C-alpha cells in the first residue's frame, strides 16, 4: 500500500514525505510542516488517535485518516479529536485523490478570506461583521442560535462536523438533551436554507458542501 500511494502521489504531483512510526511522524511534522497529514491509525508505537490528539495540540493542519477500522465509533472518535476526513480500507485511489482535492479546495477557500470578511458559497452570503445572511440575494432571518450554528459550518466548510463537536462548540457539553436541541435547530436551519449547503453524514454528523454554479452561468 505504501509503495502504491507513493507512486500515485508522484504521478499526481503531490510531494510526499513518509514516516514509519508515530514518533518519527511527529518529529517530521515539526521539521517539515506539511500542508496535509495522511494518517494510518495502525502505527507500531502509538495509536493513531493519539497522534491526532498530539498534532491538534499545536497545529490545525488538515488530517486525512486511512484506516482498516470501519466501525462508526472509530470514525466519530477520530473526527471528534480533529481529523478532517476518514477513509476506511479498502478504498479506491480515485476516492482518495478526490478527498485530497476537497481538502485542498477548502484550504484555498478559507485561506483567501480573513476571519472578519464575507463568506460566499454559491447563493449563500454571510457578512460576519454585520451578522447578516443572504440567500440568493434576499436577507435571511435567522435566530441568534441558527446564525451561530451556520457560522460554525462556514468556518469549517467541506469538513464533517460530528454531533459531539457541534454540541460542545455550541453549548460546551454533549448531553442527550443537547443532541435533541441540535436536531431541532438543524431542521429549522436547513429548512430556511431551502435544504441546500448542509448535508447529513449519516451516523456521524453534518457537513457544509460547496454549491456548484449552474451550467452556463
From TrEMBL:
Keyword Transit peptide: no
Pfam families per the UniProt record, alphabetical: Response_reg, Trans_reg_C
Residues with the 4-aspartylphosphate modification: 40
Coiled-coil stretches: none
One of the protein's GO biological processes: regulation of DNA-templated transcription
Domain OmpR/PhoB-type positions: 116-210
PROSITE patterns: OMPR_PHOB, RESPONSE_REGULATORY
Keyword set includes Phosphoprotein: yes
Protein's UniProt name: DNA-binding response regulator
